[in-house]
Amino acid sequence: MKKLHPKSNIDELCYPFMYEASSLCDYEIETDQLTRMVAWAIDELSILKLEFPYSEDLENLEKQLHWVLPLCYHLNGSIRGKLAITENDHQQLLDHYRNMKVVVEDVISGFVLPGGKSPVGILNQCSSISKKAIRLMVIIHNTENKEVAEILPKFANLLCNYFFTATILINKVTGFKETPFISKSY
What we know:
Elements: H1 24-51, H2 56-77, H3 87-104, E1 112-113, H4 120-142, H5 151-174, E2 179-180
Antiparallel strand pairs: 1-2
């Protein structure tokens, strides 16, 4: 069977690496989606802030998400191109995450079912997309023998936890009560 390959018309090609066999393109598509979802979450958060105009927590979260947004695109290009995520970026995200955990420590103590006002659902998707990106990094590094800098999965794991904790923060501010999830499997 003949392999698919790009046509000569640039207008009919959405991404130069779309036809490669490597999982690297899949990783770049996931991190592109992550970036777009973070932008959507920021937009939805600005709407939510109208309902809760005096929430310093929501204000801080919005500033942090604006800071995270370009880092998601930096995550995108940091395998194929130049490494653009730094230890300083990781440390700053870790600080934001730990500060947010302190704010929500009184409302969460385990697994919860997803739910809450927008942008909670979007941020839950950001968390899941971060997981997909990590899995693709593992495949790229371990089975496709392409070097993935250790900072990248470390940063993406932290992003995943950060986005989840942001959902808990929003739910605390809006008064949404999470439903604890008790697994029958573990």
